[in-house]
Amino acid sequence: MARTSGGPAAEPAITLAPVTVANWQTCIHLRVSPAQATHLASNLYSLAEAYVESACVPRAIYADETMIGFVMYTFHESTGAYSIPRFMIDVHWQGAGYGRRAMAAILDALKAEHPEAPIFISLTPDNRAARQLYIGLGFEETGRREAGEDILCHR
User: What is the pLDDT of residue 37?
Assistant: First the structure.
């Protein structure tokens, strides 16, 4: 990162943006490491799911002008709760705090829409890195497991 005036470099702004005709191909080419690939569906699959499931909201995650990740969430009117079935940061951007900052931005955006809504996220039981990230951001274990994945909740 470039430094200005001798001070520390500014961190890139993390923003969420719709997946559109202009950026969907970049989105489907984002990748996690091979070891992580078994933990979540591809972005292509997720976009197809969002196309047929109108409640799904896909968003590209940007660091300044560079797409670094993807998230998909749903607000369930019947329960007044959110679920986040997909969240990923491209392998080239992992390990530098972008996952934490991106999830914090996602939580802020969802809480701005529905401040009282609980936010549920699931993960495979062996995904220790994701569990540590989510718990560090205030998610709590629910003790529930659905479709082989542990469910965590942020209130």
Answer: 87
Element (H, E) at 128: helix 128-136
Tell me the sheet residues that pair with 51.
none
SS3 content of the chain, % helix, strand, coil (to 5): 30, 35, 35
Rounded Cα gap, residues 83 and 65, in angstroms: 27
Alpha-carbon distance of 148 to 10, in angstroms, equals 40
Output the pTM of the full model.
Answer: 0.91
pLDDT at 39: 83
Helix (H) or strand (E) holding 28: helix 24-28
Map residue 104 onto helix, strand or coil.
helix
**Ranges in the chain, pLDDT < 70:** 1-8
